[in-house]
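Dear support,

I submitted the protein below through the web form. The confirmation email said the job was done, but the results page showed an empty box. After a refresh the structure appeared. I'm attaching both so you can tell me whether what I see now is the final result or a partial one.
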Amino acid sequence: MEFDILYFAPGLPSHGEKARAAFNGDALFVNGRRVEISLTEVGVTLGGFNHDQLFLFWHQEEGRFAISPADANAQSLLIDSAPAPLAGLLQGARKDASRKQRRSRLGLGVLGLILLLPLLLIGLLVWKSHDIAGWAAGHISIENEQQLGELAFKQATAGMKLREGGIDAAAIQEIGARLTQGSTYAYKWYVAEDPSVNAFAVPGGYVVVNTGLIQAADSAEEVAGVLAHEVQHIERRHTLKNIVHSLGLRAALALALGDIGSGMLGDMAAQLSELRFSRDLESESDRLGLLALKQAGIAPQGMVSFFDKLRRQEGAAPPALLSTHPASEDRMQALQAMINDIGSWPAQPLPYDWTAIKAAEK
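What the results page shows now:
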């Protein structure tokens, strides 16, 4: 029974020459010619790139000779037709080759995993970046957050005309105090002389309301709805999480260790004007803001009416507040559904003449 081989012999190419081989009794024939050597002098070894290629070798006066089956089928024919004890050596070599192949595949798999691990880690970090930012923000102390807030507030409001006095500022502070009763933060409330309809919160308890927003509101309840929403971004550390997510683990470590340099502070302060809250964070602030209104005994409809009013005004130049707090139709419907789910609660009208407050500003 002949089988295809690669034949290695003195004078032949180093990569071997195609040939045919067969066993006849205790004799080996290559290309029909008997190899003049006893099979007891024929050795078996493994070679090839993965050490999975069988070789039969022997020595004659001319030098070293060898044959190797050309493919898996030829290897099976070689082993099946080889006489004992050569067949036993070949069987053992094939098992050894199988073990080496398994180790090789395992080694390649481990190597592939090592090479892919950085990419997998990067993918995991990107996929779970918001969760990681939330975890990191949760390990930043209130003291360090307030330190960031104080320094970032100064940079974020540089050039703005702020005040804490006035009938409008007094109303903002009183409403804010009702909404933040029992908070771990020491809130500070400011009115900014700015005609744009906007309000923003800085980590640590700083809240700024523009005069443009005060003028756009038709009632104290509408302003209370905005404040309740903004306060929850602070209470739930949404702004802090967004800053950490945007600037990366370097910012998280700096905040956790309280090592806030001027360069990083500038980066963090710059982020405040560019932050956008996700739909989930906006929904959470809506829901918790409504609960804060309930706790304070303030009617909730002002939150819906004010954000919906701004949404309807959105056009070529939308109100500044919508750039950081998008108010879609879906969000307004979800907000109303939350109010319906929570149910009504006792609420007295806030004791402010908002028309008079707006007139006093002019």
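Response: this is the final, complete result; the empty box was a page-load delay. Confidence is low (pLDDT under 50) at residues 119-129.
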